[in-house]
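Risk register update: the risk of archive-format incompatibility is retired. Evidence:
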Amino acid sequence: MSFIPDNLSNPHDVAHAVLQAISSRDEKVGALLAALKALLPEVDAEIEQRQSSGDVEYWQGLKALSDAGHAAIAMAEARQP
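Archived output:
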């Protein structure tokens, strides 16, 4: 699966198509990263509440998802120039 249209034969057009695809991907990644950064504090607060409540509530699965989200943010930020 290619993100470059098959009808491009001019190298300039190919380069332009590649840059557009990269820019679009980066915008999408940036939007997902921003959403994850906004969501995780709420998830972490819920985990803390579940851990400290008197009710027996399962929080381990939510904690694993939170940890994965924090790791993804760290990896994405480490790759940014």
